[in-house]
UniProtKB/TrEMBL annotation:
Keyword set, alphabetical order: Membrane, Transmembrane, Transmembrane helix
Entries under Pfam families matching the protein: MMR_HSR1
Name listed for the protein in its UniProt record: GTPase Era
Transmembrane spans: 430-452, 472-493
Domain of life: Bacteria
Occurrences of domain G (ranges): 58-189
Keyword Membrane found: yes
Source species of the chain: Nonomuraea coxensis DSM 45129
Amino acid sequence: MKLLRRKEGPSLDTRVSALLEAATLGEGRLPEEAVAAARAVAERAGARTGLSLDHTVAALAGATGSGKSSLYNALAGEELAAVGVTRPTTSTAQAALWDGEGAGPLLDWLDVPHRHSAADADGSGLVLLDLPDHDSIRLSHRLEVDRLVELVDLLVWVVDPQKYADAALHERYLRPLAGHRDVMLVVLNQVDRLPPQAVERCVGDLRRLLEGDGLADVPVLAVSARTGEGMAVLRSVLGERVAARRSWAARLGADVAAAAAHLGVAEGEGKGLDKGVDKGLRAALARAAGVPLVVAAVAKGHRHRAVVATGWPVTRWLRRFRPDPLRRLRLGMTASPDARPQLPTPEETEGIVGRTSVPGASAVQRAQVEIALRDVGASAAAGLPAPWAAAVRHAARSHAAELTDAVDRAIAMTSLDATRRPRWWSAVNALQWLVFAAMLAGGLWLGVLFGMDYLRLPQPPLPTAGPVPWPTVLLAGGALAGVLVALVSRLLAWLGGRRRARRTGKALRTAIAEVSDRLVLEPVREELDRHARFTEALRLARADV
């Protein structure tokens, strides 16, 4: 027969580490009280695991008159605590030790100075505390109870037939400690005052109340410290818990689970970043940054510089009186009009603000960017609990003030390529000057011939190209060729300008996408990843495996 092995959950150390990680991740996003409580639990767990694990600290807690001290004496086998009838007699906790060797540091940590060795030989490893009354009229007594209830390994709640239904006990202690059912016992003391039938009814009613508190599985023992009724069963249950040497781990595990539950207000599965959620943001940033204006300026600037570089030398100088569209926007240009554009060094770009003269965004465009940022935050925060949804929305706008300068810087750096000179410009420029030189030579040649004729000097032989003299061919042909080359170059410049504008537009949008990803989407992803790690740590802390 195949045996099924029970799957073991994470170790206590793993759960404590996970709780501490969840508290760290939740800092600034969760209520400060819950984060501090989780850190305190983790610190307490670390301290307890460093002390004696061979001892189990059990605390007798109850109201005035419930008979805690009587039960304490009965279990210890001698009169260690003073017994009162109506007024509280225990002002500070005291401890009875069964084989207390090595328990000193543990009791020092618990800050229990009064210690006694129990006369009863049974129960090795048990450290039994007699606590003050939780309903004492003295505040110091109640604070002492609250302090030790958070620290002990095993809680033994002592009630009596008259006050077992006390609302203060159930609402202040039992109900909030519902997750600690594995380290809790409820003892109905003084049953010798009731007839047997009444004891059964009383125990049944007490179980009903405990079930309402979420403690249906907690053992309920009916005893009488005065007559000894039920004491053997109580000693047996305590002995089993002590022998197991696991109450301390169960207590700390319950504390970790409770602290994780308080942090759990920030649980919830978000949808994450939707695909394409940043398209609206990129489009809004592109419009606000004047990308359409820059793209148009790139096309016009390309044509302008092409005419200056490849136009007919006779008329191209007129083009220089027209401003370069890119120069007007301070894009991709150096200080000298004739200088070739150069990439700036990292030192030159560091800390520069307002690198371009692109017109600023209008009020409508700024509003569109704000709406796009809110849309990104709202989309990423969908499905998340309120604390983390607010953090995600804040992350989406955390660098809003830097967007304008970052986009302007990206446009300036990306536009540097828009002024690079194509190689064919240099070739055409050389051709134009060659044609211009031929035209000039023809003109000079004709001028010399005209001067010789004017001075009635004999004419030298004149070569011809067919019926047309070569000086005329050079002058007219050079002028016609220069104009034709300029027209063809202008057509090529127009096509090249369109192509360069498309390429620049694509590069600008890519640069803007990188800016939006770095300053908007990346912080959002980090916040979503933080929440995912928080959720995973919380699941591990609660041992939900």
